[in-house]
Each structure stands twice: as structure tokens, then as C-alpha cells.
Amino acid sequence: MNDKLSSSEEFLWQYIQENLTDIPNLSIIKLSEDANVSTATIVRTMKKKGYTGYTDFRQQLTASTQNNFKYKNLEKVDHDIKQAIFKNKYEVDNTLRMINIGTIEDAIQKIKDSADIYIFARGFSEFIANEMTTKLQLLGKNCIMSSDPNIIITMSKRIKREDLVILITLNGETKELVTGAKNAYKNGVSTLTITTSENSSVAKYSDMILLGFKSQTSYFPDYEVRSRLPLQVISRILLDSYVIRTKKNHQLD
């Protein structure tokens, strides 16, 4: 999933996400006609997204619908509302698919070994940061959270090598978070980024990246209030895994 999509492929991917409930019933020819793209574009897009082709994508989508969800309660739901429900499920399913277990294990070890943990976030991501901070404090870690631009920039210059910086950012381009990550990187501080943008500016200065899937569909297009659901899912998995690992190690001790 590292290949960058072309503009036509981006358009197709967004079209698919906006019409998820219809895709299982669409042949590649029909999708080509409805989305006004070539069948070759469809195949290239699917391969860049990690599937063998359109049939593989459609089969996985259909299987996910049949095996993981019971939709009888949605039969009479308005089509557009059903699309909104599927959008959230699709974000979660793809985020789980993208989880790197090795990175989770590395992050757990870093959290365990760090003297102090600093969590930086802005906007809606602050809610996730606050939750993580509280949970880590309850687990006995010295954890500090900041969303203030000036404090983030100033504090990031003073963090010690034995500490850990966690950055929570949807697109990875928030100016003060990029600066904070860069400052920590220059000082040899370990950084963990939870994001949906693998090639973002923040990611360049991150030792560990936990990547989630961001839907292109937004019901608030005039505002930057896109769903942080993928980041929430990752943060919960990380902290739940941390508790499981630390409890096991404690029992072994």
C-alpha cells in the first residue's frame, strides 16, 4: 500500500468509498461505467491498495459484510445513512488490516522503558491524546500531554534521550507537530507517530509509525473535522497490548 495513487485512481478510490454498499453487486465493467474510469485504472488502483485485483477487493468486501456484521436491522435504513454506517466500518476494517504487529511490540517496549512520555496533539486528536495520557498515568507512567503550539515547540527542545514522544495527527502536517517531531529527532529522542499519512512531514522524523486508514468521504467538507476513528482504534489497541504485555512480564518475574 505504499504506491501513490494518480489523480484518476484517487477519484476512483473516493467513488468506491462513497458507494461501498453497491460495490459487491457491481462488475468491473459496470463500475468502470458508473465511475467513468477505465477498467485498467480499477485494476491498478486495487493493486496499489494491496489487493490482487478488483475481484479480490469485491470478494473481501462481501465476506466482511457477511461474516462480521448482521445487517437485518439496516434493511429499512435510508441508503445514504447506510453508506455512513459502512464508511465507519470500512475505516475500522482497513485500519485493523494495516496494523503492524512488530511496530506495536516496539512501541510497547519503548513505553515500558521510557522515563517520561510526552504526547503532542492538536484539534480533534486532543481527545485521543487526553485519553492516552490518563490511561498511561493510571498505569504508573509519568506522562505529559500538550496541545499548545508554543509549549509543544519549546518542550520538544528539552526532552531527554531516555524519554518518548508520541504524536497523534491525522494528516501529519500540523506545523507545530512537525517542528516538535523534528526537535525530538535532532536530540535523539524516540518518537512514535499515530497517523493516517505514511509519507507526511511528521513521519519523516518518526522512529515508529502506527498507520490507520482514513476515508476520503467527509460529511463536513467545509471544516477540518474528519473522523479520528482510525487513530482512536490504534491508540486503544496499543494501550490494551501494553497492559497485556506488562502483566505477562510481571507474572513471569
Topology overview:
Elements: H1 7-18, H2 28-35, H3 39-48, H4 54-68, H5 79-98, H6 101-113, E1 116-121, H7 125-138, E2 142-146, H8 149-156, E3 164-168, H9 175-186, E4 190-195, E5 208-211, H10 229-252
Parallel strand pairs: 1-2, 1-3, 3-4, 4-5
Helix pairs in contact: 1-3, 5-10, 6-10, 7-10, 8-9
Describe, in plain words, how this protein is organized in 3D.
This protein has 253 residues and is of the alpha/beta class. The protein folds into two domains: 7-98, Winged helix-like DNA-binding domain superfamily/Winged helix DNA-binding domain (Arc Repressor Mutant, subunit A); 101-252, Glucose-6-phosphate isomerase like protein, domain 1 (Rossmann fold), CATH 3.40.50.10490. It has ten helices and five strands, in the order ααααααβαβαβαββα. It has helices at 7-18, 28-35, 39-48, 54-68, 79-98, 101-113, 125-138, 149-156, 175-186, 229-252; strands at residues 116-121, 142-146, 164-168, 190-195, 208-211. It has a five-stranded parallel beta sheet, sandwiched between helices. Helix 7 links the parallel strand 1 and strand 2 (142-146). This is MurR/RpiR family transcriptional regulator. Residues 1-68 form the HTH rpiR-type domain.
By CATH, the superfamily of the largest domain comes out as Glucose-6-phosphate isomerase like protein, domain 1
C-alpha-based Rg, rounded: 20 Å
Q: Report the total helices.
A: 10
Strands side by side in the biggest sheet: 2-1-3-4-5
Total tally of structural domains: 2
CATH third-level topology of the largest domain: Rossmann fold
Helix content: 40-55%
Helix/strand structural class: alpha/beta
Main beta sheet strand tally, sense and closure = 5 strands, parallel
